[in-house]
Every structure is written in structure tokens, then in C-alpha cells.
């Protein structure tokens, strides 16, 4: 059972945030998802603009002085960015519960990602555009060759629900139970070993998994892996970084400056947000209220594990103030 339902049953006022670019966030005042400009965002824009907007909206609508935030994976990373970009919001957080929190990405053990990551510059190129677009209007530029390739999988977004993601998972994962088992095994090869995922849940996974984001969001994972033990902003290349950050290297987020109270749950079998990366995060947070490592949990167990209510969500609820 998802935590939102558990919390609602306990009379908490539950708000579900959402990342721009997925199938629930395709509206814009002037742009459409068919335009490249719509997709010019990375973790930094989500953390700097979207998360603070959600928080301020909730606090205004409810009239409350504080809220509690529960995040998973990148949902934690963008929270950290929001707290650093808008330090006044730290005082509005009762507690932040971080589930498999993304920060440093140096020790990922997923083989195909480790092989692919060094080539990230081949799939997203910096400001020096062969199309000669004005430099202050460009967020990132994809080479013409790569653009053609990415169009086959739903660009300008990455694995958006209108394109490759939906068609692929319906065809490969949802036709038979054997296919569902194979897809479960594929998920486990990416995120870590787990016997806690029910193949019968695969159609539900597919409805909600890989449902659209920008190429830059995906590339930033690889950039952070390549950078080692650091939690950094998007890397625009030497010239782009000088324009954006005043340095040839991208901005490093100083997690020690976060003053909101944080409690971390992590997985001992997580191949994406590994124990070593979580240990690095724990060493940086100065207002850490505690941490709990579930030894047999991998990345998706925090959301879809069969025993997640007993092993995790009841502990999360115990950390929250009463409704």
C-alpha cells in the first residue's frame, strides 16, 4: 500500500508532488511538448523552481506554518537543491524523510550505466551549437545525429508516455506472465537484487515507471557519476559553466548548509543509490535526525516492495508529527 493512502487513512492532509515532463505535467502557458524549449530543464530547475513552488502553494492553501516532506531517489536530490537555493524554506520543514536519497552517484554498481556514463557528452552537447543558436537562449544542444536517434524513442522528452516508453513496456512486459517475470528480472539487474517485487505488479510498474523527463535530467545522472564524490549542478561544458556559474566546473551543492531536519532510509542492496553514496550523504548533512538501512532492500523496494508497509512505511509514519 502506498504511503499516501496510509497517511490519508490516518487523517493526514496529503499532497502529491510531480515532476515536470511526465504524463501528468505536460501543460505550459506558451510551450508544448513537441517543442524542444519545453524540455530544457535538469535537476536544477526542478529543485530551484518546482519544489519551492509546490511547497509555497501547499503552505498558502493550508495556512500551515510547516510541512513534512517524503521523497524517494531524485525526489530527495531536488529537495536538497530547493533547500540550498531557497534557504528560508528550511524553517518551513517539520521533517524531511529521505528514501533511497540521491546525492553523490559515484558508486553506482549497475553495469550498463557504468559503461554508458562516460559517453554522456555524445548524447548531449554543450552550448557550441552547429545550428548557431544564440548562446543565451540555449539550454543544451543535441547533435543532429543523436537527435535523429532520440526521435525514435520519444524525444524531445526521454521515454515519455507518448513515445517509446509506453510502446516498449506494453509489448515486452505485459503480454504474458513470463514476460512480466523477465521484466522484473531486468528491473532487478538495474536497481539491485530483490525477491520483494511481485511479477503480477508489473503492469502497475509500467504505468508509472519511466513516464517522461528531459534528456538533460538523464544526462545529469551520468555527469554526477563521472564527477565522483560530489553533488553538482548540470555541467554545460567549460564555456557554458563560465556563463552560468562563473567557473569552468559546475556548481557544487554544499549539503552541509541544509538546516531542515532529515531522516534517511536506505537499502543495503541498492545498486543505484548505493550504501557508499548514502554514507557520503550522511557525512555531509549537519541536521541529520537519524538513519536506517534495510539490508535486503534495493531501489524499487521503497516504493513497490511486498513488505514495504511493515518494513518501512510504519517507521516513516512514526517520525511524522500527529495529524
Automatic annotation (TrEMBL):
Q: Does the keyword DNA damage apply?
A: no
User: What is this protein's record name?
Assistant: AB hydrolase-1 domain-containing protein
- What organism is recorded for this protein? Daphnia magna
Domain of life according to the entry: Eukaryota
> Where are its TM segments located?
none
Print the organism lineage.
Eukaryota, Metazoa, Ecdysozoa, Arthropoda, Crustacea
* Keyword annotations from UniProtKB, A to Z: Lipid degradation, Lipid metabolism
Domain annotation AB hydrolase-1: ranges: 7-108
Lipid metabolism is among the record's keywords: yes
